[in-house]
Amino acid sequence: MVEFGIKIAPFINRFICNQGNSIGIDILLLTQEWKCRFNLKGYIKMDRKFINQLRNQLKDRRHHLLKEVKLRLREFKDSGGYRLTDTADIASNLVDDEIVMSIAQGEAREIEEIDNALSQIKKGKYGVCECCGKKINKQRLVAIPFVRLCLKCKEAEERDEGAQDHNGGYYRVGSVDYDEFEKDDEKSDSIKYIEKSDINPFAN
């Protein structure tokens, strides 16, 4: 079906140019649907090898983060059993716990972003900005494979958030259910998909 669509698409386009009636309009809509379904001209395409490389990086990073989050949660639970009499020691341990949970939150949110990227790969929509719908630069995807926005839209978002913070607003990114990370991750590691800082966590 795909090959058939590719072969007849040029003839259909020429037919549309010569037709000004409703038949031409119907065929135009049909060709637009083919473009979306079969990656014909006009639909965002990306090199399969490039996508597979990023997909593997995403899965490896996800596996690593899952282990890190579980380790930090165990550390947090273990620290809850200390018996200290010195107020300074208690305060120090509470600060340490807060740091551990803050790091775990960041790692859990990154896992959510990775899951979204893998889902987009499966749907064939990876590399498309969720705001403007345009193609995200390859270099940006290499730096942050789970990125959702193109650079232009991301900068606009950060400007809006900056204005929000300036006015005393509070910005919260999603919510995390930590109970999910205590479960056996066999299901998480069996993903069979084909898909904030300046530091690239994927670099060797």
UniProtKB/TrEMBL annotation:
PROSITE patterns reported in the protein's UniProt record: ZF_DKSA_1, ZF_DKSA_2
Keywords: Metal-binding, Zinc, Zinc-finger
ZnF (dksA C4-type) ranges: 129-153
SUPFAM superfamilies hit by this protein: DnaK suppressor protein DksA, alpha-hairpin domain (SSF109635), Glucocorticoid receptor-like (DNA-binding domain) (SSF57716)
Zinc finger DksA/TraR C4-type domain residues: 124-159
Superkingdom in the source lineage: Bacteria
MF (Gene Ontology): zinc ion binding
Signal peptide positions (record): none
PANTHER family listed in its UniProt record: GENERAL STRESS PROTEIN 16O, RNA POLYMERASE-BINDING TRANSCRIPTION FACTOR DKSA-RELATED
Protein known as: RNA polymerase-binding transcription factor DksA
Source organism per UniProt: Candidatus Scalindua arabica
